[in-house]
């Protein structure tokens, strides 16, 4: 290679670098001096809970998909603020984002609890997410947050399986068993169980077992076999009642400080949107795997599971009708959300109920004794 050729090649490479590395056929170049955007997050869950693991899973997916240009670090509940104070911390910019559930903000506007509490007009959690994404729910939630002057960008994801009625000292067999029962729940479930006669106390997940151990609670619900096992419920109770309408269609919420989210480039916003959808699917698959394993382990550890009697389920539905009628009369936005959910459910549930085969029939057939 001649000296003149070497000089010409150096000039070409210098010009290409100044132009931003846009060499035909070459991969895009990121300057080694570019500093990644760092977001400090907090979840509303204890570090040992599988829910905090879900928050970490989402953060890792964003970090990987962005090629390191956006870095989300997630702290557990209480690291910066208490679980129920997360949304205010995100709105004020004390935290850049977080992971929780809408029912935790129930005190700010009762309408938010509709995304997680109650029977959802017969919709399962994935159908509620379908309503949120395609049936008008997202615009309504944005309206709620705007009315509260909260500077947050919300993403809902992660359909949760039906939550147990909860952990008790002994099986509940009738509605009257709730009279005077010191019981933990959150969101509009508070109103459901209050109407059924319970003395309800709303506590974050990390505080429930200690309260039961000290006798401050007689019974409590949280969420699933894995969370309940990791949080120590089997240490304070050996009776768990399965099936309930109080939170049978809930999902998780990912929060960003809206000002900081809006400042991101379009491609990083696209990364976040794609990560939400991917994490939603992955979380639902992981939940099936982990919850089913821990369900077996809890039984090996002496926990007895009982189906909630239909009479109690019917009482929940009756209480729900009364609660929502009252709330709709007090809060126009609550009624607006409720009507939107019902309109979507009337066609979506009709389609699903007419279409889905009875999976229990196939399971019973496959596991029948020869």
**Strand percent estimate:** 5-15%
Write the element-wise H/E pattern from the N-terminal end onward. Answer: HEHEHEHHEEEHEHEHEEHHEHHH
Number of helices: 13
Q: Please state the CA-atom Rg, rounded to the nearest Å.
A: 24 Å
Number of domains: 2
- In the CATH scheme, what's the topology name of the largest domain? D-Maltodextrin-Binding Protein, domain 2
Major β-sheet profile: 5 strands, mixed
CATH class of the largest domain: Alpha Beta
CATH architecture of the largest domain: 3-Layer(aba) Sandwich
Uncertain runs: 11-33
Mean pLDDT over all positions: 91
Give a structural overview.
- The structure is a single chain.
- The chain is α/β, with parallel strands linked by helices and 370 residues long.
- It is built from 13 helices and 11 strands.
- The protein has helices at residues 3-18, 50-65, 86-92, 125-134, 137-147, 189-195, 208-213, 225-231, 258-262, 266-300, 310-330, 332-355, 359-366, and strands at residues 37-43, 70-75, 97-100, 152-159, 166-168, 182-184, 199-201, 219-220, 239-242, 251-257, 304-307.
- The longest helix is centred in the C-terminal third of the chain and has 35 residues, at 266-300.
- It is globular.
Give the arrangement of secondary structure elements:
Layout lengths: L2 H16 L18 E7 L6 H16 L4 E6 L10 H7 L4 E4 L24 H10 L2 H11 L4 E8 L6 E3 L13 E3 L4 H7 L3 E3 L6 H6 L5 E2 L4 H7 L7 E4 L8 E7 H5 L3 H35 L3 E4 L2 H21 L1 H24 L3 H8 L4
Parallel strand pairs: 1-2, 1-3, 6-7, 6-8, 9-11
Antiparallel strand pairs: 3-10, 4-10, 5-9
């Amino acid at each position: 290679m001649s000296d003149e050729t070497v000089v010409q090649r150096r000039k070409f490479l210098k010009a290409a670098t100044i132009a931003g590395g846009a060499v035909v056929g070459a991969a895009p170049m990121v300057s080694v001096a570019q500093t990644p955007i760092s977001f400090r997050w907090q979840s509303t869950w204890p570090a040992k809970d599988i829910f905090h693991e879900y928050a970490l899973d989402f953060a890792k997916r964003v970090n990987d998909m962005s090629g390191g240009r956006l870095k989300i670090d997630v702290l557990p509940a209480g690291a910066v603020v208490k679980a129920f104070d997360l949304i205010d911390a995100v709105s004020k910019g004390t935290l850049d984002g977080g992971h929780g559930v809408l029912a935790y903000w129930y005190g700010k506007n009762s309408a938010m609890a509709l995304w997680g509490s109650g029977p959802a007009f017969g919709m399962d959690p994935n159908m509620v997410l379908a309503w949120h994404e395609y049936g008008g729910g997202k615009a309504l939630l944005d309206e709620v947050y705007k009315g509260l002057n909260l500077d947050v960008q919300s993403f809902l994801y992660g359909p949760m399986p039906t939550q147990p009625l909860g952990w008790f000292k002994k099986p509940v067999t009738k509605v009257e068993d709730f009279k005077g029962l010191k019981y933990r729940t959150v969101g509009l479930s508070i109103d459901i169980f209050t109407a059924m006669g319970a003395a309800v106390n709303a506590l974050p997940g990390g505080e429930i077992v200690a309260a039961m151990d000290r006798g401050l609670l007689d019974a409590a619900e949280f969420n699933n076999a894995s969370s309940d096992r990791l949080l120590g419920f089997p240490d304070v109770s050996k009776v768990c009642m399965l099936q309930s309408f109080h939170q049978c269609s809930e999902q998780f919420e990912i929060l960003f400080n809206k000002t900081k989210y809006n400042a991101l480039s379009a491609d990083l916003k696209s990364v976040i949107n794609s990560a939400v959808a991917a994490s939603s699917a992955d979380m639902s698959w992981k939940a099936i795997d982990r919850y089913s394993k821990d369900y077996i382990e809890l039984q090996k550890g002496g926990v007895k599971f009982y189906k909630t009697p239909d009479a109690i389920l019917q009482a929940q539905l009756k209480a729900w009708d009364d609660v929502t009628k009252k709330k709709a009369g007090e809060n126009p936005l609550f009624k607006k959300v409720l009507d939107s959910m019902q309109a979507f459910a009337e066609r979506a549930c009709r389609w699903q109920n007419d279409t889905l085969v009875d999976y229990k029939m196939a399971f019973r057939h496959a596991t029948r004794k020869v």
